[in-house]
Amino acid sequence: MLNKILNRIRPGLLTRLSNIIIIQLVFVFLAITIIFFFPANTNMKDNNYLTLKDKYAHIGQRISKAMKISSSKSNDITIDDNSKKNLVALLNRERIIYSYLFVQGKNKEIKSVLTLNGSVKNDDDKINAMQELIDQGIINYEMSQNNDNLIPVVPETHFAVYYYRFNINKRMPAVLVSFVDNKYLVSNRPQTIYAILILFLSSALVSLLLIYLINKRFQEPLKRLIMGLEKTAAGELYYLMESDNDEELNKLTAAFNNMSKTLWDNHKKLKRYNLRLKDAYMMLKESQKFLKTLIDSSPSCIISALDNGEIKSFNKKAVEIFGIDNKEAIGQNINDLFTHPIDEIKANKKENGDEKGIEILCRRGDGSLFPAFVNISPLVNDDDKVSAYLYIIKDISESKSFQEMMIRIDRYYTRGEMAGDIAHEINNFLAILSGNVELIPLFIKKGDQGKIEKKLALMK
User: Fold this and answer.
1) Is there a contact between 345 and 338 (Cβ–Cβ < 8 Å)?
2) CA 194 vs CA 10, 47, 96, 308, 322: distances in Å
3) Is 254 in contact with 262 (CB distance < 8 Å)?
4) In whole angstroms, how large is the CA radius of gyration of the chain?
5) Which residues lie below 8 Å from residue 133, measured CB to CB, with a gap of 6+?
6) H-run or E-run covering 68
7) How far is CA 67 from the centre of its chain?
8) Residues whose CB falls within 8 Å of the CB of residue 259, separated by 6 or more in sequence, listed in order
9) What's the CA gap between 121 and 112, in Å, rounded?
10) Computed from CA positions of residues 222, 223, 228, 231, in that sequence, does the dihedral angle turn out positive or negative?
11) Would you say 387 and 380 are in contact if contact means Cβ atoms under 8 Å apart?
12) Confidence (pLDDT) at 241
């Protein structure tokens, strides 16, 4: 129970890494702050003081060699331009930004004989500020000393002031007043290198610890997660990972396991849907096959074409009637099968209100024409828009011949009836003539001339 509670309150890997990085940054900035912003206390240590005194002793020797005393009476000193440039370069290397050289003559008069401009270039305000920092009392005190001496002064300004007492050519007392910018590190090089080395080693140690934590607490679980993803990609969908004690990794593991379960459930659903889709596809395929067989076996010519007239289906009866192969017919325009454009036929059908069909002349593949009865039906899609038309065509050539034969028979029958009526009427007159002809010989024998003439008149 206690372990579970500790695991719950234990910070996560990313949290620990963030804390380590923050600690490292704080340490680095603290070290930089101590080294660069608190140099004065370090300068006051004995070892640094001796180092500074040796440095100024070297500067005093260079100045003493460069200075030339004109005469023993006037004690005027001069310096050539080349020596002055060398001294300025030396001061720049030692981070001394400005210097004044004071000497004491035989009459105990103290005067400034030389200024050495280090890094201050034509900045009158800065030069005036440094001049105000010069303490004449310290200069007088230094002139009264017999030995070389160094007095550092760090006022509450941007500058540190150093008073170095030495002798020019071993006989003229002099004081070099130099100014150093406080923002620079004024300490001996070994201590600076040692501080930087300590900083580097500490940072390296923290970095190694950080790498160890990443490798131990993050890289190994990440490898397991990658292996799980590879197995999932290979088809092993229901692969679960063991949870870790780290909070972020536990969330990542739980998310992966949840994904694996979801994939497995979806896989099972997809399998069921695939089976249903396969059954539906087989049923659709059988329906299409049955419908194709039904259309091809139809005694009527059935053709389907798009709204632009492109033929999409052409059954066997159509091949038989039009004398055009199925492959050749598909893709042609439906207008090629009729003597009149199909749009006119549709318009004529709509105007006449004939829903059963219309009689038109069709054109066979060899160019011959034949009469047909055409029924046009629109095919609509899910949006109730007409996407194609179905043409059911029936050859009525034989029906036309039968109709012509019946017309001829009717004409013959009518003519026969008319001939019978005429023959009957003629027969009546012939019967009268025949009877009178038979009576005339009798009247001739009797010599009855009057009756003979009467009968001849009747017959005439």
Assistant:
1) yes
2) 38, 15, 23, 91, 106
3) no
4) 66
5) 153, 155, 157, 159, 161, 179
6) strand 68-69
7) 76
8) none
9) 20
10) positive
11) yes
12) 63
d(CA 74, CA 77): 9
Find tokens 């289906």 and name the residue: 313
Matching residue, tokens 């996407």: 387
Tens of pLDDT, residue by residue over 247-263, are 666 777 777 778 777 87
Q: Point out which residues pair with 375 in neighbouring strands.
A: 392
**DSSP line for 148-216:** -EEEEE--SSSEEEEEEEEEETTTEEEEEEEEEETTS--S-HHHHHHHHHHHHHHHHHHHHHHHHHHII
Number of H helices, E strands in the chain: 15, 12
Q: What share of the chain in percent tops pLDDT 70?
A: 74
Residue type, 192: T
What global pTM score does this model have? 0.35
Q: How many Cβ atoms from other residues are within 10 Å of residue 395's Cβ?
A: 18
Residue for token pair 């069709």: 362
Angle value at C-alpha 137, between 155 and 143, nearest 5 degrees: 115
pLDDT of residue 44: 39
Segment 229-287, tens digit of pLDDT: 777 776 666 666 666 656 666 777 777 778 777 877 887 888 888 898 988 889 888 88
Report the alpha-carbon distance of residue 127 to residue 125 in Å, rounded.
Answer: 6
